[in-house]
Write a structure and sequence with these properties.
mainly beta; 116 residues; Lipocalin; 8-stranded antiparallel β-barrel
Length: 116
Amino acid sequence: MMLLSGCNEKTFSLDSGRYVPDYTKDEKDINIVPYIFIDKDKFSIIQDIAVSYQPSGTLIRKGNEVVMETVFADESYKWVFTLVDNNKLKFVLKKSVIPNNHFEWEDGRLFSLTDE
């Protein structure tokens, strides 16, 4: 019975909208970057609001795994996340491809959908 229940892993929802980092309440700021904007099967990663072009591309979902891929500044990027709850993404650094270590997110960073 225990083996059968493991096969029915719950699939979490991934709604369109703005996904912001989970911080402690002292760090929380609605205007904080980075954030991820998801619109169905498209995404944009906003790392700096002063820059006009932000990485954006195609989002592919496989169960609770979410893969975002694009070419940005002539280099291929891939961000991999795991849905750990409804509309809550956990960054998986070891599966991601970020050229030249040009990325500051730590493994396990959480992003949640905000209504703000």
